[in-house]
Amino acid sequence: MTGTVLAILAALAFGVGDFAAGIASRRIHFLFVTLVIEAIGVILVGAALLLTGPPPPEFSSLAWGAVSGIGSAIGTLALYRGLSRGQMSVAAPLSAVGAAAIPVVVGFLLGDRLSAVAIAGVVLAFPGIWLVAKSSAKTTRTGTADGLVAGVGFALLFVALHQAGDTLWPVAVGQLTALVTVAIATALYRPPRPGRRDAIRDRWWILAAGVLSISATIAYFYASHVGLLTIAAVLASIYPAFTIVLAVLILHERPTRAQLAGLIACGVAVTAITVA
């Protein structure tokens, strides 16, 4: 049960964080937004390590942490690129379904075994995730590519953190790796620098996104260690549901019938997995 609660909290933090980052990305290039978010994560997880003082783990744990950071950077950049190109309608659902599907396969190969009710919940979660993240906008191959790449990146993050040790060291290494990767991408692409007015206006959205992003990663990290990889990854991947709910409440957007159906499916799936 603890793993289930942590995974749901991770989904909540991921979803709210994506909403905050999306607001900021409307005026500031997504590369700069991502770069600051990753930097905030490094500072916070570094502070947590100083306070808790766990001994450094084995090299393999740190290596898995670095792999998780590469996956996080690839997934975030691909997803935000899809958003910036106006292809969120296909990039978001593909990324969320991919982030859940690949760890489910890996979890099965590693020995995860679920009850019939939990299996039903996992199966129902996939169309729920797709529907809740999908809009009625026209899609293109570009959006499909962004979504597929993002899904693989997030799946790599989920699997690698599950394979890492049980202290925050792998999370810290992963966060630092993600920061370096995004910094390299920003230096190579050289996006236009944000104006001072936009930076001041959106600083709280970016700060919130940074705090929520690392909080979600840590919550998922512990969820995947106290529970099954399959359950943790699927529950964490329902994050688009929380983004949609915030868009309705704060931006007064009207959800489509498909999104409402997806919200209901996700709710039933979470209930089934929780009671199993």
Q: Low-confidence segments, ≥5 residues, pLDDT <50? A: none
Question: Helix count, per DSSP?
Answer: 12
Separation of the first and last Cα atoms: 9 Å
Strand content: under 5%
On the 0-100 scale, what is the average pLDDT? 85
Measured as a percent range, the helix fraction is over 70%
Reading the helices and strands in chain order gives: HHHHHHHHHHHH
**Structural category:** mainly alpha
> What is the domain total for the residues?
1
The biggest sheet, with number of strands, parallel, antiparallel or mixed sense and barrel status, is: none
Q: Which shape, going by the Cα principal axes?
A: globular
The count of β-strands is 0
Cα gyration radius (Å): 18 Å
Characteristic terms for this protein:
single chain, 276 residues, mainly alpha, 12 helices, 0% strand, globular
Give structural notes.
It is a single chain. This protein is mainly α and 276 residues long. It has one domain. It is built from twelve helices and no strands. Helix 1 crosses helix 11 and helix 4 packs antiparallel against helix 10. It is globular, with a radius of gyration of 18 Å. The N and C termini lie close together (9 Å).
Short overview:
This protein is mainly alpha-helical. The protein has one domain. Helices cover 82% and strands 0% of the residues.
List the helices and strands and how they pair.
Blueprint: H1 2-24, H2 30-52, H3 59-84, H4 88-109, H5 116-133, H6 141-163, H7 169-189, H8 196-201, H9 203-226, H10 229-236, H11 239-250, H12 257-275
